[in-house]
Amino acid sequence: MLPLALAACGFQPVYGPGGTGAALYGRVRVSEPNGVDSYVLVQTLEERLGRSADPAYDLGVALSLTQQGQVITEDNATTRYSIVGTVDYVLTEIASGRVAASGRVNEFTSYSATGSSVETVASERDARRRLMTILADQVTAQLNATADVPA
Q1: Is position 118 within any domain?
Q2: Per-residue DSSP letter, 33
Q3: Contacts of 19 (CB under 8 A, 6+ apart)
Q4: Which InterPro entries does this chain map to (predicted)?
Q5: Distance, CA of 70 to CA of 135 (rounded, Å)
Q6: Does residue 72 sit in helix, strand or coil?
């Protein structure tokens, strides 16, 4: 009964025949990165969407990051930080210039600053990499769910 109920409500697998994921995979050119964090974001988006030699769509992404102290000790030392990331994206059909999808995703990760300076730098780099992966996954999920692309 479940397959019939899902079919009746218009459910369609994203990566199945005629699904948005299948229609986008290998057909999207992601905007050029402008820094280390955006490079990781673009690289992860290309992994999720497939690199394209002949793209049908441009995906413009704008990344913004802020860092916030989260835990402050009695002697005014910050021992934990959060990095908040926001990505604004626009998927545009190259041939017509029509916007197929747009939106904003945001998330955060944290890292500890209690170890040595080397440990803190490594923790921050790892947190930034994790954040770029999370944001890329969210953009990909939003595109798969909402993009107006022909199958």
Answers
A1: yes
A2: P
A3: 12, 13, 144, 151
A4: LPS_assembly_LptE
A5: 21
A6: strand
Number of domains comprising the chain: 1
CA 65/CA 36 separation, integer angstroms: 12
**Strand pairing class (28-30; 57-72):** parallel
Give the separation between CA 135 and CA 105, rounded to whole angstroms. Answer: 7
Query: In tens digits, what is the pLDDT along the chain, a chain of 151 residues?
Result: 555 555 555 555 555 555 566 678 999 999 999 999 999 999 999 999 999 889 999 999 999 999 999 888 888 888 999 999 999 999 999 999 999 999 999 999 999 998 899 999 999 999 999 999 999 999 999 999 988 888 6
Taking the C-alpha atoms of residue 36 and residue 19, their distance in angstroms, rounded to an integer, is: 33
The CATH number assigned to the domain holding 109 equals 3.30.160.150
Distances (CA, A) of 87 to 20, 59, 108: 21, 12, 12
Whether residue 91 lies inside any domain: the answer is yes
The parent domain of residue 123 ranges over 12-146
**Structure pTM?**
0.85
Q: Shortest CA distance to 145 belongs to which of 6, 18, 14, 8?
A: 14
